[in-house]
Amino acid sequence: MKKLIILVFMVLAGRILAQAQVLADSSSTTLTGKVFDDKRHAIEFATVMLLAADSSFIKGAITDTTGTFELVGIRSGQYFVKISNMGSKAFISSILEVKNGSPSLSIGEFILESEARNLQEVVVKGERPLLEREYGKLIVNVANSAVFKTSTNAIDVLKRSPSLIVDPSGGISIKGLYAPLVMLDGRPQPLSAEELRNIPASDIEKVEIVSNASARFEGEIRAVINIKLKRDKNLGWTGIAYGGFNQNRQFSGYETGLSATYKTRQWTYFGVVSHRNDNDFLNMSGFRRIGQGNNYTLMTPNAFIHYDSKPVTYRVGADYQINPKNTIGVIAKGVFRNRTDLSDNLTHLDTYAQNIITARQNIQTLNQNTIKGPTRSLNLNYRGTLSPKNNQLTIDLDYGKYSRTENQDIQNRFLNNDNSTVISTSRLMGDGTSELSIRSIRADYTHPLSKTLQLAAGTKFSWVNSDDALRYDTLSLGGWGYDASKSNRFRYNEQISAAYVILGKEWKKFTVEAGLRLEHTQTRGNSLTLASVVDRSYLRWLPSFQASYRLDDNQNISLGYARKLTRPSFSDLNPFTFYTDPFTYIEGNPFLLPTMRNTAELSYSFKNFNAGLSYVHDTDIIVQMPIQDDATKIIRYTRVNLNTQNVFNIDLSLPVKITKFWSLQNNLLIMHRQVASSFLTGQFDNRIWTYYYGGGQYFSLKNNCTIELSYYYQGPSADQFYRVKSYGVVSVGVQKSFWANKLTAQLNFNDLFNTYREAFYGQFLNVDVNTLQTRNVQNFGVRLTYKFGKSAFKRKNRANGSAEEESRTR
User: What are the start-end ranges of the H helices in 199-261?
Assistant: First the structure.
């Protein structure tokens, strides 16, 4: 199959190059020239216009850092050149005679005379607002905004953006409901939290938030975040080097990274490498009651888990501009994982008879889990304009391979009442391997039918193959022995075929777009150990609709609807049983169905104020539910489909500028959530009104210094059959720039008062749990960022076409 994909790409590339050659037309000429000022300094960003003898416009260009310009596809005839640039007098050449016969023709050098101007007369009328609403998306203008001055990376930027909630591990959700697909410069990119932390905030121009994705996107993609990077047309080198240190309540960590780009007139080369040491932790306590009435067992675990992760990430690639309308590129990226999780859990088991303790058992579980293995992916891509009518075609070919080894060592010590004596021990060793490959090909085409009517269509094919093995060995008096009851081998194959069509129409103030996407999925899950094969084949119709009406220059109203599906992740389908302690197991479910989601949204914007209403109806939602055996006291957390989820949202956002140096950001989310389902022998209907408020106060001081005070509060909420208690966080940050903004120092103190808590409780059937968790949210960090190179050009980050499949590997 890999050879087939390469062959298809070569054929397509040949056709594209042939088309590009036709478009260039052998009967046309490329005109080149250079523009200088009266001191012989090259002028960058000068506007060059080629005009016919009757002064009609023919072609335009912008000069690069060397003052060079190109005018492509010029036919025989008489022309003249007009060149303009701020601070210089306009230049008009004499008549030029162009005769085709050679592919290129130099028309010489042009000198622009300086024009004296009183720069004090230039007045800035205003600045871009922090928030803008534009046809189904909310635009957050990051560059030059005080709100984001103390942000160190893309994760920090997203934390400060409306409609987004970012958890302590870096997981992103739209309005607390579902994870979006992250895109860079309009191209899908399945970025992990690690990769987002390696994008400096200073590189970001704006963030576009699409909370209800159209049929153009895969069925898995319910929402989109498009991070647009700063860029210009400068040639040469540019780069960023950074390093940081952080300290939480238990451990310290560091980060370091380097990114560099080199751009010529036709080639762009880029590379990124980064390394982090994340010393995170989790404290967990609570209780689990087993049994009814006055006779029961009370299990009270107290666990501390240390997550020591040291990943190395990289991304390298190149883009080649065949001509101004056709570009091909290649990207290779990957992660070298090196993570060790150490867990120390002391559990007390108190047995009660008529509410009186009759027996006590103490168990200490030491669990060491080491995860290693590289992830590698390769993307070949083409993007081009195929006709003067601006017909656009993009093609992506992708191959990814993900390898993982997981070694687990579980030691159980059964202690006396005061924990001073070990009564007995047991030990379990687990060795797991996982090999996953993803191949895909995707093509998207847009065709303007008129100035106000556009047709878009596309298709995608993907193939996924995974092979997972898990072996457990138990230590007994005779030594280590293979434990067949806990071991398994699972293979999974998936093929997805998809196609979509979208029709869009624009009027003076009204825009409408309707689309339909079809996706056919065929899967096979094969548990070799259990001799169980599960085959699935299903077709889903996924329509979408968007409409936008501009009331005036300051007001806009929009309406949208989309149907989406969420397939189970590859790990969710794996029936392995993963052991964390003698009484807690985690397992997958090969019989899971995809979740179907219907979302309708209504939004309104007035200047910087944005308001939205949305309704979400989900069926067959995929969650992790506990199943408890009272006799053995074992609780198994397994993935299942619950019946329905209904969510109603009110979303408000209002930035306020109090003075020139003091601004506020306010984001309020009011939600009603209901999860109703039958499960095993019972039913539950969990519903609640909740709210989330996030905001900050930002002070822009003299000498490039910014101070930030940020805060958020999450009200009591519900999830599955659980109730979740409220919590809030206050943080402070300072940023200062030096050396003409080449060096930036940032200090951040997160969770100033150590108030972050994850407290939840639930009762359903025979399960009665109450849990409190604290994490490494409170931390202090310092970071230095240095920009180098003569150019401010930033690479054009491209995604791969297997974005959906890669997002399901995590």
Answer: none
**In what helix (H) or strand (E) does residue 435 lie, and over which residues does it extend?**
strand 422-448
Check residue 120 and give its pLDDT.
37
Distance CA 104, CA 69 (A): 12
Mean pLDDT of the chain: 85
Residue 306: exposure state from Cβ atoms within 10 A (0-12, 13-18, ≥19):
middle
Per the CB < 8 A criterion, the answer to whether 66 and 139 are in contact is no
Cα–Cα distance list, 250 to 140, 246, 779 (Å): 35, 11, 9
Q: Both tokens of residue 356?
A: 């009186």
pLDDT-derived band at 558, boundaries 50, 70, 90: very high
Query: Is 570's pLDDT higher than 80?
Result: yes
What is the three-class DSSP state of 781? strand
Give me 619's structure tokens. 């069926």
Three-class SS of residue 156?
Answer: helix
Cα angle, residue 652 at apex, residues 143 and 727 outer, rounded to 5°: 95
**Model confidence pLDDT, tens digit, residues 335-344:** 999 999 999 9
Contact 721, 701 (CB under 8 A): no
Three-class DSSP labels, 603-643: EEEECCEEEEEEEEEEEEEEEEEEEEECCCCEEEEEEEEEE
Per-residue pLDDT at 43: 84
Strand pairing partners for 737? 744
Model confidence at 668, pLDDT cuts 50, 70, 90, reads very high
Where do we find the tokens 């989601």? Answer: 597
Model confidence at 122, pLDDT cuts 50, 70, 90, reads very low
**Cα(112)–Cα(20) distance, rounded to whole angstroms?**
35
DSSP 419: S
As a whole number of angstroms, the distance between CA 790 and CA 235 comes to 8
358: amino acid identity, one letter: T
- pTM value surpassing 0.70: yes
Q: What's the rounded mean pLDDT across residues 165-177?
A: 76
**Nearest CA-CA partner of 696 in 665, 668, 733, 654:** 665
Identity at 799, one-letter amino acid code: A
- Dist CA 122 CA 417 (whole Å): 81
Q: Among 398, 385, 381, which residue's Cα sits nearest to residue 268?
A: 381
CA-nearest of 104, 111, 274 to 197 is 274
Q: Which amino acid is at 131?
A: L
pLDDT on residue 223: 82
Q: How far apart are CA 551 and CA 557, in angstroms?
A: 7
- Which tokens in the block code for residue 560? 């949208």
pLDDT digits (tens, 9 = 90+) for 127-143: 567 777 776 778 888 88
Going along 113-158, which residue ranges are E strands? 131-134, 137-141
Output b/e per residue, 587-607; b: 16+ Cβ within 10 A.
bbbbebbbbbbebebebebee
Q: How far apart are CA 723 and CA 758, in angstroms?
A: 11
3-class SS shares of the chain: helix, strand, coil, % to 5: 5, 65, 25
> 649 near 603, Cβ under 8 Å?
no
End-to-end CA distance of the chain: 24
